[in-house]
Amino acid sequence: QSALTQPPSASGSPGQSVTISCTGTSSDVGRYNYVSWYQQHPGKAPKLLIYEVANRPSGVPDRFSGSKSGNTASLTVSGLQAEDEADYYCSSYTFSNIFVFGTGTQVTVL
Amino acid sequence: QVHLQESGPGLVKPSETLSLTCTVSGGSISRYYWTWIRQPPGKGLEWIGNIHDSGIINYNPSLKSRVTLSVDTSKNQFSLNVRAVTAADTAVYYCARGWSSGCADPWGQGTLVTVSS
Q1: Mean pLDDT of all residues belonging to chain A
Q2: Which residues of A touch B56 (CB under 8 A)?
Q3: Least C-beta-crowded within 10 Å: which of A28, A38, A58, B85?
Q4: CA torsion angle A73 A77 A83 A88 (round to 10)
């Protein structure tokens, strides 16, 4: 199965919002509410931000929110802060317990 | 608080087998899907597969012919073997605790494995 499609880059000024899309197909993102989002700072392991489309684990600021429409999931970061500058990856369940990641988006805080 | 730590050789020769172990501390290895993910230098994440202590194992179809996952509940460890490696298998390999919904949390710090003669 192919990787989910994300824009290579996104940017915003401090305090603004940025939204990252994650486009799959009717066999993955469109079919299951098992979309997750991860944040990865350089040289670090990814960190779970969102699970099951829109749920935040304990400790993740509510500035991070997730949603889904059709075959596209989205992550919105509101009130951008310098520490939000990182790479972001989506992930989705596909079939038979197989999972696929997105291509990744580099977020720059201007 | 669950902590995961990868261990294994950092250098593997082409055509040989890459073997890594992930040690789980601070919690039981039972009832979760223990997951391997890799990231080639400068590239994105690739899901390798996961294993449940019940015996359920799932593999990325693109790697299935070369990958074997196993779990040792007595040691609270799970392992990854990748056979017949090439330079394309050079990556940071992460282990993670997987949930039934597919999310992975927490992750190990990752270990770089280089395939080179």
Answers
A1: 96
A2: 97
A3: A58
A4: 10
Between CA B39 and CA A106 the distance in angstroms is 15
Please determine, for residue B55, whether its predicted confidence score (pLDDT) is greater than 90: no
User: Hey, is B73 helix, strand or coil?
Assistant: coil
- C-alpha span between A51 and B103 (Å, rounded): 6
Tell me the chain A residues in contact with residue B107 when contact means C-beta distances shorter than 8 Å. Answer: 45-47
Cα–Cα distance, B75 to A1 (Å, whole number): 34
Provide the shortest C-alpha distance from residue A43 to chain B (in Å).
Answer: 9
pLDDT digits (tens, 9 = 90+) for A10-38: 999 999 999 999 999 999 999 999 999 99
pLDDT band for position B101 (cuts 50, 70, 90): confident
CB contact under 8 A, A46 and B109: no
Contact between chains at B45 and A89 (C-beta distance less than 8 A): yes
The residue whose two tokens read 């007595």 is B74
Determine the 3-state secondary structure of B71 from DSSP.
strand
Q: pLDDT band for position A3 (50/70/90)?
A: very high
Contact call for A36 and B102, based on CB within 8 A: yes
For residues A28 and A72, give the distance between their C-alpha atoms in angstroms, rounded to a whole number: 10
> Which of A83, A39, A3 lies closest to B107, judged by CA?
A39
DSSP 8-state symbol, B110: -
